[in-house]
Amino acid sequence: MSFWLTEEQEAIREGVQRVCDGFTDEFWRETDATGTFPEPFVAQMAAGGWLGAAMPECYGGAGLGLTEASIVMQTVAQSGAGFSGASAIHLNIFGPMPIVKFGTDWQKQTYLPPIISGQDKMCFAVTEPNSGLDTSSLETRAERTNDGYRINGRKIWTTSAQRANKIILIARTTPKDQVRKPTEGLSLFYTDFDRGRIEAKPIPKMGRRAVECNTLFIDDLHVPKEALIGEEGQGFKYLLQGLNPERVLFAVEAIGLGRAAIAKAAQYAKERIVFGRPIGQNQGVQHPLAKSWAELEAANLLAFKAAALYDAGKECGAEANAAKYLGAEAGFHACEAAVLAHGGMGYAREYDVERYFREAMIARIAPVSREMILNFIAERVLGLPKSY
Amino acid sequence: MKVLVPVKRVIDYNVKVRVKPDQSGVDLANVKMSMNPFDEIATEEAVRMKEKGAATEVVVVSIGPQPAQETIRTALAMGADRGLLIQTDQTVEPLAVAKLLKAVVEQEQPGLVIMGKQAIDDDNNATGQMLAALLDWPQATFASKIELNGASAANVTREVDGGLQTLEVQLPAIVTADLRLNEPRYASLPNIMKAKKKPIDVKSPGDFGVDITPRLKVSKVTEPPKRQGGVKVESVADLVMRLKNEAGVL
Lengths: 388, 250
What we know:
The complex is a heterodimer.
Chain A: H1 7-21, H2 25-34, H3 39-47, H4 66-94, H5 97-102, H6 105-116, E1 122-125, E2 141-144, E3 148-159, E4 166-172, E5 186-192, E6 198-202, E7 213-224, E8 228-229, H7 235-241, H8 243-271, E9 273-274, E10 277-278, H9 283-311, H10 317-341, H11 353-365, H12 370-381
Parallel strand pairs in A: 1-4
Antiparallel strand pairs in A: 2-3, 3-7, 4-5, 5-8, 6-7, 9-10
Helix pairs in contact in A: 1-4, 2-4, 4-8, 4-11, 8-9, 8-10, 8-11, 9-10, 10-11, 10-12
Chain B: E1 2-7, E2 9-11, E3 33-35, H1 37-51, E4 57-64, H2 68-78, E5 82-87, H3 94-108, E6 112-116, H4 127-135, E7 139-149, E8 153-160, E9 163-170, E10 173-177, H5 189-197, E11 200-203, H6 236-247
Parallel strand pairs in B: 1-4, 1-6, 4-5, 5-11, 6-10, 7-10
Antiparallel strand pairs in B: 2-3, 7-8, 8-9
Helix pairs in contact in B: 2-5, 3-4
């Protein structure tokens, strides 16, 4: 782990920055106002090869680690694209990892290249209305047929399902009462998003209108045997392996968004003249922004430490969780400070910080709540008894 | 045909430069450095020639301190094939650069040299012309368009004061790139990865037998005077009066 970027990481940051430079604040404001998916942005990120940053080289990726993927995603969020930009590509970065790690050669050769090139657009369906973070209680069922499986159930908060032509989903293949542990008997599938069998309803929500979230109703979806990733019944274990990178990415994205917010606020505070001098000359305006900077940078150190541990193949659960917690909180507080520094203008869409503020809530809630993170640290790091 | 592209590591064009307190030069400590934008345009043009099959190899050369390797790496990520760094921490003036480049040209035997018309740090706009003179090669400066006629000649459109001028130059020649020649690409991730594996040769000025001792002495560097704020005039008559009496332009 290093405290600064290597020459190659700097080139990555600059490469992504150059793509982002082509997408102005007006662009992101417009996608948020109209709920339009930022297709041109995703197309350019795909053309630059950025979607495959962490995918293996032999399938068209760059074979880089979580550290580099974090640099890519943070640069996107920090450019002013925020979660509207980051969430539009977030899933491509580590989402296909179960296929990479547990798929057969045939599955990898068939499924990965079109995801990396941006041709296949996938969504990831885990959470359910009746199970939430208690994944082992999920109710979606996959029953064996002669040539594959038949899937029925409901999913919620599935991002980008309107646009996807592929879906990774987890379903119970063995009923809970027939397995030794509730986490067994769940299986992962990667298959076509068959709109005749899956109905996706967008959920009207607080922010990030550009990238929709959905409720899915899955009704007799037939999938072939080749859709099963890895062994039947081991899906939960596969899913767990992706949790830590996911947390790190959320952390760095939230930190990027927070940095964008305080940069806007500092700029405004320099230019806005009240009582004959810039408002940024007042400590009452300076200190919340300075404090945010300090909180963001501290969270960032932990996030990149977690990424370095992950890339070195070391245990990083505590660090990744804590980084997600700190990053999301720091990002949110930075956005709040930025809105307040703008005064009335902070409430106006034209100044962008209200959009950041709404988006900053995402990382506080997803992919895991603050409370569950603290539970995890209390139990696993401090050795306290499990509370739930 | 081999194309040689000299590139220079300069202060990034976005950075607001500060003069050192002792006025001996510009403060370079902790300042972001990048490839000279005109050299980026030159690299892009060479890479496009290679992509069209008109060039067989694009070689990038830089003269400067060790971190200039990063600048070469940027050009390699854009699509150039290999790099050469002539490493020195000394100030290298345009004539010394031209002499070093002449030595590189003699070694590499390129069919064409494309370089930025000037570097944005010292704005000399001299090296291309000096190199052409030293080699006794044709030169076409301030190019906004380059059309190759096989490997023997090129039509180069130049941006001159009165408009556009088109020259035909016999190859090998020196062409210097102006702003509108092309829009340089962004390095893609796969190309950044490939660039890591491309070779960069490191040499010293001594290896080419060139004496780079500066001949010029900087006596003082100052910041431009602060611009005075404008005034609003009340009427057209007032404007005309002020242009006549105060500005003295009428």
